[in-house]
Specification:
By secondary structure, this protein is an alpha/beta fold. Helix content is 44%, strand content 16%. It is built from 15 helices and 14 strands. The strands form two sheets. A seven-stranded parallel beta sheet has the order 3-2-1-4-5-6-7, sandwiched between helices. GO terms for molecular function: glycosyltransferase activity.
Length: 392
């Protein structure tokens, strides 16, 4: 099968990482994959295979640049004639739909990756172009319901398809954990000792991640547990303001902003708890990666987090077995509840956290492994192609 994956950009992010992982999965099954990026440059690791091609349209933000990119995209589709075009994120989704007017596309799937893909104008654009795609997907039941509520897609033409987690890359490793914690070049000098409690978070420094709430929550943690440390991996426009909040709360010794990292899997192996403070999400890939890494999760109750956690996701105010070693969901924006949940998790002890982490990994392997999601996508492509062939 010849598959085109069309994405808005290839910066570090959950959606972009998922597209690269899908490309690897399709290539491993023997399919030809072209990854087309609307903008540039590429900041993530891509597959290396003779069956893989990268095309960068390098569009700017001006209407003229976008129109030029549209016609280059359509010309490529006419020349390569793929069996499937699968677009990801709002700009690529809309452009792929319009491109169908200029190039034959046997099957077109357009995938959103969040319950919040922009304001009313974007939702209207989705609604007006819906007839030009064969299927719209979003990454969680929550995000699908939001799209239907905003009339971005009719309920009969949008389905939930979760992100797939690379359970080979993200996995617990006791030896790697020990080596990472003891390596002077891996952890900054702020770690008091190799056994100090580490809370880890990863994600771009943008409004959706609500890092101010996380910083305020960790001030509560640091006051009660001075040896605890928080590391946040991620870059973005709000980094300066997040650092200012760290400094204002007197947490420079306890909170480290790591910037952009390519070693998230190693940080998860070294950590004790994964935390997410987001105000909104789709199905956060990073939470699934943390679960696959055997980490307990403390998160705001947003987007599809509850779907990832399943029965293991509990409200923070309820004590679970093992003296509080359970995944915790707290209200969005509630720094006190987030801090309390982190403290409960850290005080539960390593054995209780390890037992919870094992259950978390089993859930991801069973329901959200990349291999399972690749199979679901390929089955979807075949089903849509059969429907189109039958209808014609």
């Amino acid at each position: 099968m010849k598959i085109v994956l069309f994405v808005t950009g290839l910066q570090l992010g959950g959606a972009e990482t998922q597209v690269a992982d899908l490309a690897r999965g399709f290539l491993a099954r023997g399919h030809d994959v072209t990854l087309i990026s609307l903008t540039g440059p590429c900041a993530i690791a891509l597959p290396t295979s003779p069956q893989f091609t990268l095309v960068e349209l390098k569009a700017g933000k001006s209407p003229g640049s976008l129109i030029g990119a549209l016609f280059r995209f359509a010309a490529y589709l006419r020349a390569w004639r793929p069996d499937v075009v699968h677009a990801h994120m709002v700009h690529a989704n809309l452009m792929a739909r319009v491109a169908r007017w200029f190039a034959p596309v046997s099957v077109l799937v357009t995938s959103a990756h969040s319950r919040n893909e922009g304001g009313r104008a974007r939702m209207l654009a989705y609604r007006l172009t819906d007839r030009w795609t064969d299927l719209t997907t979003n990454v969680s039941d929550d995000a699908v319901a939001e799209f239907v509520a905003q009339r971005a897609a009719p309920a009969t033409r949008i389905v939930s398809m979760p992100n797939g987690i690379d359970t080979g890359r993200y996995r617990p490793d006791a030896q790697a954990r020990a080596a990472w914690r003891n390596a002077s070049n891996a952890l900054p000098d702020v770690l008091p000792d190799a056994d100090a409690p580490i809370v880890f978070a990863a994600g771009r420094m943008v409004e959706a991640k609500d890092y101010p709430t996380l910083i305020d929550a960790f001030a509560h943690v640091a006051n009660a547990m001075p040896e605890a440390r928080l590391f946040i991996a991620g870059e973005g426009p709000l980094r300066t303001s997040v650092q200012a909040r760290v400094d204002a709360r007197g947490l420079a010794h306890a909170v480290t902003l790591l910037g952009r990292r390519n070693d998230i899997a190693q940080w998860m192996q070294a950590a004790d708890v994964y935390v997410m403070s987001s105000a909104w999400e789709g199905l956060p890939l990073v939470v699934g990666e943390a679960m696959a890494s055997g980490l307990p999760v403390v998160s705001t109750d947003c987007g599809g987090v509850r779907e990832l956690l399943g029965d293991a996701g509990q409200a923070a105010e309820h004590d679970g077995p093992h003296g509080g070693a359970h995944n915790a969901l707290v209200p969005v924006g509630d720094a006190q509840a987030l801090g309390d949940a982190l403290l409960r998790q850290l005080r539960a002890g390593p054995e209780a956290r390890r037992a919870l982490g094992t259950a978390n990994r089993e859930r991801i392997v069973t329901h959200f492994s990349l291999d399972a999601i690749v199979t679901r996508w390929l089955d979807t492509y075949v089903r849509l192609a059969t429907q189109r062939h039958t209808s014609h």
